[in-house]
Design goal:
4 helices; 129 residues; mainly alpha; single chain
Length: 129
């Protein structure tokens, strides 16, 4: 019995683990951003913009390292899932992401950056010859 089956199983486990970590990393960025987005410098929602840039960079770097578009898609899905779940009101009526300029920048800007990261990753992906 050769070791190719073991290597294939190990490679599959490593790949699945990598995507799992990327999903959790995107979700953690979404959770942290949902609680910390409101930092402002004057009228500029600097923290919200920084969290948007962070998810864009995460998507692009993950795609670049893994050489796949799904490397960008997985953290984007984690970020969107966490952010949108935390933006929904709860039974007591409170919300985490409020309808302010910073909240709008964070939620919609972050979504555009996550989707934009996936699109840019698909456009700039190195294709084998």
């Amino acid at each position: 019995m050769d070791g190719t089956a073991d290597r294939k199983g190990t490679g599959l486990l490593l790949t699945g683990g990598t995507y799992g970590v990327l999903f959790v990393f995107g979700a953690v960025q979404g959770i942290l951003g949902s609680f910390l987005y409101s930092g402002m410098i004057g009228p500029l929602p600097l923290a919200a913009i920084a969290f948007c840039v962070a998810i864009l960079a995460t998507c692009l770097l993950a795609s670049r390292v893994l050489h796949t578009v799904s490397g960008a898609l997985v953290p984007a899905i984690g970020w969107i899932a966490a952010s949108f779940v935390l933006s929904m009101p709860v039974a007591s009526g409170s919300v985490i992401i409020t309808n302010t300029a910073a909240g709008t920048w964070y939620l919609y800007g972050g979504t555009l950056c996550a989707v934009g990261g996936v699109i840019l990753a698909s456009l700039t992906r190195v294709r084998p010859r």
